[in-house]
Amino acid sequence: MAATIDATLQGASANSYVTLAEADAYFLTTPHDEHWTGSDDHKNRGIITATRYLDNFDYYGTRCSTTQALKWPRKDYKVDGVEIDCTYIPQQVKNATFELAHVLLYNGEALVGTTGTQGTYEAVELGDLKVKYKDSSQTPGVINNILDIYPWLESFLGPYMKSGATNYAVTLERG
Known about the structure:
- The structure is a single chain.
- The chain is an alpha+beta fold.
- The protein has helices spanning 20-27, 40-54, 91-106, 146-149, 153-157, and strands spanning 57-59, 62-63, 74-75, 77-79, 82-84, 124-126, 129-131, 161-165.
- Strand 4 and strand 5 form a beta hairpin.
- The longest helix is centred in the middle third of the chain and has 16 residues, at 91-106.
């Protein structure tokens, strides 16, 4: 069955922040457009998957509707003095979607995660604080945070994100 993109703003069935036409137009302006190839179905799958990953982050502001499927669009937040509102998804969020879809299509194995026999770090030290991860603690097929694999995503999403993926983020508030 072919993958179909639904990029309806505030849509209850939306599965993407961007359309295929927007992605195709974006890659016409990049130096790596030769890698944005394949069938429309293949590209749609990359875009939908990229959106799923990006939708795991914890963003500032609030959803525009309680019935919208995705976390964007949002409201009640400003970036560089520009009020984010419900009429659009910021271009930086769209660019992150395009670029992540591109790497997923070009290197689909990148998000497979560890093999379960090696940890990300053997030891981490900061002054007297020391952490050593057990190799066996790494679950096959799981990544700790997509930002560990693609740290450049933060350059697109940083102003909009409270922290990393919500599964691994802890909000710290001062009393």
